[in-house]
Write a structure and sequence with these properties.
By secondary structure, this protein is mainly α. It has a single domain, classed as Alpha Horseshoe (Serine Threonine Protein Phosphatase 5, Tetratricopeptide repeat), CATH 1.25.40.10. Helices cover about 60% and strands about 5% of the residues. It has a two-stranded antiparallel sheet with strand order 1-2. α6 packs antiparallel against α7. The longest helix is centred in the C-terminal third of the chain and has 26 residues.
Length: about 210
C-alpha cells in the first residue's frame, strides 16, 4: 500500500448531496485510500480544475505478464500475488484486483494492507457491505491500521450514508495519528460532517 497526500473538501450539507471527496495528488487516486463519489452538478461550486478525478492509469501489460509468470512458477509467492493485484488495482481493473487480493490473503492472511485494498476494491465494485466486512478483518489484524479506519469512514459516509459511524472511525484515526496524512484527512472529514450539520440546522431553523 502506498502512502499519499489527501485533500478533503466539503461539497454538500445532507445525505443526498456529497459532504466531501477525497483526492490523491500527483498520479491521481492511488492505492490505499478510497475516493468518494464525484460531486454532482447540484453540489456547491467548490471544485477547481485541480479537484477533478484523473483518468485511470493504463494497465501495465508487461508487468502483468511478469508477475503472472512468477505466480504460475511459484503459486505460494504471496508477494508477487499482491503485486499482481496492485497492478490491476492501479489500472482500476477492480474485478481482477479482487481475484488476486483474495488469493494473496489465502497465502498471507495477516497482510492488513492487502486486506484493506481488497475492501477498497469491493467498494469500487458497488459492494459497500463487503468492503466494511473486509475492513473489520483488517482491524482484527491491526486495530490501529489508520488507512483501514479512514477507508471505513469513507465507505460508511458515502456508501452507507452513516455519518455517525464515519465520524467514529475518523475520530479514532485522529487519536492514533493526528499529524499523519490519514489523520489530517480524517480531521477534514470530521470538519465536513460538523459543517454539514451546522448548515442543515440553520436551514431547518430558517424554514420554521
Amino acid at each position: 500500500m502506498k502512502s499519499e497526500s489527501i485533500v478533503f473538501t466539503v461539497a454538500g450539507i445532507c445525505f443526498g448531496i456529497l459532504i466531501g471527496w477525497i483526492l490523491g495528488d500527483d498520479n491521481g487516486f492511488k492505492r490505499g485510500i478510497a475516493r468518494a463519489p464525484q460531486a454532482s452538478a447540484s453540489a456547491p461550486a467548490e471544485q477547481s480544475a485541480g479537484n477533478t478525478a484523473p483518468a485511470a492509469r493504463p494497465l501495465d501489460e508487461a508487468r502483468v505478464q511478469q508477475l503472472s509468470a512468477a505466480v504460475a512458477k511459484n503459486p505460494s509467492d504471496a508477494s508477487a500475488t499482491v503485486q499482481l493485484a496492485n497492478t490491476y488495482f492501479d489500472a482500476e481493473k477492480y474485478d481482477d484486483a479482487i481475484k488476486w487480493y483474495e488469493q494473496a490473503l489465502k497465502l498471507d492472511p495477516r497482510n492488513a494492507d492487502a486486506s484493506t485494498d481488497l475492501g477498497v476494491s469491493y467498494y469500487y465494485t458497488k459492494r459497500p457491505d463487503h468492503a466494511l466486512d473486509q475492513f473489520e478483518r483488517s482491524l482484527k489484524i491491526n486495530p490501529n491500521h489508520t488507512k483501514t479506519l479512514l477507508n471505513k469512514g469513507i465507505v460508511l459516509a458515502f456508501g452507507k450514508q452513516d455519518l455517525d459511524g464515519a465520524a467514529a472511525a475518523w475520530k479514532k484515526v485522529v487519536e492514533i495519528a493526528p499529524d499523519s496524512r490519514e489523520g489530517q484527512a480524517a480531521q477534514r472529514g470530521l470538519e465536513g460532517i460538523a459543517a454539514s450539520r451546522q448548515n442543515r440546522g440553520a436551514t431547518s431553523s430558517s424554514n420554521q
